[in-house]
């Protein structure tokens, strides 16, 4: 039996803070915020199309300014600013250099072995122009698809911006995906070229990427060229007539490549979502509307002041968060960003805080998964570093439970930093629901209100009637500039997935949410992340939040397991904090915590102690794999797992439990 541990001072303080209903923006922050007047909501709501058109003209440079905002003549295939012409690469680079800001740092890049590169806007423009010319020399033309399969190195931004410069459509694949996943995406999009890397580093080890790419993509008919970035210096095979090195191609290219003005509706990129059961969906975004949404939200959600701020989005460019808030939004706004190559625990568990101290970062945008991991490691680690430069914190990727929100606010933000808990998707292109840091009173765990110009609603599942207070489905009620235009080559699937249930004017997000008495939105999780226990429909995220509220729990993942009596029973995989030891008494405490916070019907029937949970490289828990082992099925696709050993360990625990007569 484990010795019962007294709550620490921090735990007592977090419990006290939970009693605070709302957190107001700090007075000093509000006084200097870009937006501090709540009237912005009314202004945007009274004429959203005109408001978005004004933002497009305020924040972007157009070769031909649009006079038209929304074209809704063929719903749900909406178009924005289609009479305008602009170039995304020009907006991210040239205009800053032309305005005399070429010496400003675009990226402070840090390699996982301590390498440093500070890349200015002028340098980034030079590299982008050269690589754009190199692509043209390799036969890439406007409208062609270019695959990008790179780790977190500056060349990933160069490749994206070079494509945008000449009108090629980039298709970035997250570096953690398998080469087979790359092939699937390149084959379906008929990519003409692929930009990849000799090898990729992870926690001191180097994986041979180009060699693996050759094994899986060598016979693709459409793929005429593979460009290889020499990032690690390892030897890699090169095929004459097809393969070229990135540095050699750039050195041989003309240094001047004017940005070609594009129609606002010209495709900018395809980004595939990773499907757990169905095949991945190719989300198609276009130039003018997407850039307007990403730039506007980046400027005002993060209260960005480019001359003062050092901004760090701790995501990966392989996901939409990286597209919108590492590349296009920050560069269009002239920001200075941190780009980190490695993991949050290499070369040590304090590396994030070391980077913030070193670069005097002022804004941090991170995932709740990372925050919960830091909680597990303990507040003593960030306490070793000077985090006083931080003035704003953001959360992205999944709902954040109140305990993690409060820890983030107190331990990392020192209670002086507003927390912007943002909800959005690959499909939305930009943040949809979020606090405005100089205006919104925040509640831990709530994304609060839709961004100005966005109309969100919680509706009943069957009739689609608005729910003024309570739980339902999350929908977006009006088109917005950065929305996906379709699914690549799958118009019918686009309609079926997002608009079939409630009609062309309502986008079904696929998330469940609730509204409270103040009209605040609480995103609960995916509609399919629901457990039905004796007729009670429970969100897995809601149960997880109740479990991690226990002072000795660091993280939890909940699934529904088949049960003869109740249809489904709740099975919880639980990771304990610090040196806490598993025990039957602790299991009962956790069940009691859930009963108190949700109800007795929500108590987990089965609790599996886990040293770690199966996650993708981007940090998302793979609950479908947990369902597989709980149900005794063969594991589904594990190619995106960050650490396959986690599953082997859990399978061993399940087997031992069943051998002892448990489960």
Number of helices: 20
Number of strands: 30
What is the CATH superfamily classification of the largest domain? ANL, N-terminal domain
Please mark out the parts with pLDDT under 50 across 5 or more consecutive residues, or reply none: none
Give the class from helix and strand content and strand pairing: alpha/beta
Share in β-strands: 15-25%
Average pLDDT reading: 92
For the record, what CATH class of the largest domain applies? Alpha Beta
CATH-assigned fold name of the largest domain: Rossmann fold
Distance between the termini: 20 Å
Overall helicity? 25-40%
Q: What would you report as the Rg, rounded to the nearest angstrom?
A: 24 Å
Strand order of the largest sheet: 12-11-8-6-7-14-15-23
Task: Give the biggest beta sheet.
Answer: 8 strands, mixed
CATH architecture of the largest domain: 3-Layer(aba) Sandwich
Count of discrete structural domains: 2
Approximate shape: globular
Describe this structure in words.
The chain is α/β, with parallel strands linked by helices and 663 residues long. It has two domains: 27-513, ANL, N-terminal domain (Rossmann fold), CATH 3.40.50.12780; 529-659, 2-Layer Sandwich (GMP Synthetase, Chain A, domain 3), CATH 3.30.300.30. Helix content is 33%, strand content 21%. It has an eight-stranded mixed β-sheet with strand order 12-11-8-6-7-14-15-23, with helices on both faces. It has a seven-stranded mixed β-sheet with strand order 5-4-17-16-18-19-20, with helices on both faces. A four-stranded antiparallel β-sheet has the order 21-22-24-25. α7 (154-166) links the parallel β6 (145-148) and β7. The model has no long low-confidence stretch (mean pLDDT 92).
